[in-house]
Amino acid sequence: MLTYLINGISLGSVYAIIALGYTMVYGIAKMLNFAHGDVIMVGGYMAFCATSYLGWPAIPSVLFSVLVCTVLGIVIERLAYKPLRNASSLAVLITAIGVSYFLQNTALLIWSSNPKAFPNLVSLPNLSVGSIQISSVAMVTVAACIIIMVGLTLFTDKTKMGKAMRAVSEDKGAAQLMGINVNGTISLTFAIGSGLAAIAGVLLCSAYPTLMPTTGAMPGIKAFTAAVFGGIGSIPGAMLGGILLGLIEIFGKAYISTQLSDAIVFAVLIIVLIVKPTGLLGKKVNEKV
Amino acid sequence: MSMLSVENLHVYYGSIHAIKGISFEVNEGEIVTLIGANGAGKSTTLNTVAGLLKPKNGSVQFEENSLLGIPVHKIVGKGMALCPEGRRIFLQLTVQENLEMGAYSRPGSEIEASIEEIYQRFPRLKERHKQIAGTLSGGEQQMLAMGRALMSKPKLMMLDEPSMGLAPILVEQIFDIIKELNEAGTTILLVEQNAQMALSVAHRGYVLETGRIVTTGTGAELLEDDAVRKAYLGG
User: Fold this and answer.
1) What is the ipTM of this complex?
2) Which CATH class is domain A2-113+127-275?
3) Were A211 and a residue from A4, A75, A116, B1 both cysteine, which residue would form a disulfide, CB within 3.0 to 4.6 Å?
4) Partner-chain contact B76 A167, CB within 8 Å
């Protein structure tokens, strides 16, 4: 029982980190970046290459992966989404799906479809509390999630750039009138989201160490669900949604059915959206005219 | 010296010719108002001057420098602020954060003193500085919008329908503040549907009709003008 709880929170933390990327990009650019899941996969491969081919130690490998994904995020935004800033949201959505396929197929060309065994980057001992074993990967994952959450909250609440980000997410035109560079802010959001995706990729592959070009697809969809579940656009919502989703998935697998666990996850989403369409922590804006 | 000079401006929304060659100027120290009915092109004109819309033809010069082609977010740093129609304050940010955003183009060290100045002018905002802006009343939101625009220390402040949706007593208060700001040295370009109020505070006014300027004169002249009275002042 406790083991399931720990596994659920750990998996949920990975979803939460991915969901943050979805929710931030949605909040600022008002688009669903369906290529986000594949950035996770790229992050996994980058860390894999750095350790297995170049023989780098864990921390530089992770930093390398974050760096590559951050740049990748900015490039994707510039090349694929920026030209569509004033296009219909359907065009942007389809482009995002296109980018997703592009990344998957590029990975397929480079690394082939054979699964790679992801190296163990977390070389800490597992923790035993009584009869329960807590894996070091789970601890690192939860710790990373908490650090990211606190860091992002401080960033958006306290820094000038973070406040500008919130202003842009609410009203781009008014933000420009204040002197805020909206394009720069959007780039920054993609950079942060993609950097987080890299971290999520490393954590995910550490917990489930098979790496394939499609590795990011399912966690990407789940994390998107988590973001909607928690209330898309809301940072605490993404965290809450991610963790709940991880718990539901693990408990569903353990007590109901392994095969149906994904169905249960999405069923919960549907119920939440029927009862509370804005998601758990979604903002309802009251506007005065 | 003319601070803002707009020459033969043409603006389109897609194929709709919204502004059909208007020219006007605002001199340093003046309050100038653009009045006209709904859809005359008043807001379009202000948004074009602020850089939010791109004109097809014509020129916009601020202190003898052309503003065309400069990205919107760089214009505020030149000393011009627009307090937009419908206020457009950041409803999910606090009052204080809204004011900080207004000073985004200025160095951080000067901001605190400026916020104090704004609080002195608008004590209500000080009382509510930690509140989320969306919880303010309409009048308070208008004050916040004006305070936010003032945070950039503009030489020219453009106000788009500051009286919209406000009770008469608040409208008077807003216009008093506009006069005070002007007396303190800020040049004002005011767009209003409340022509009576606008003309009574303005030094000069321009009357817009379907994208063209049809009449111009001092505030007092326009208040006396028969055509203007008929069309905009209820006889």
Assistant:
1) 0.90
2) mainly alpha
3) A116
4) no
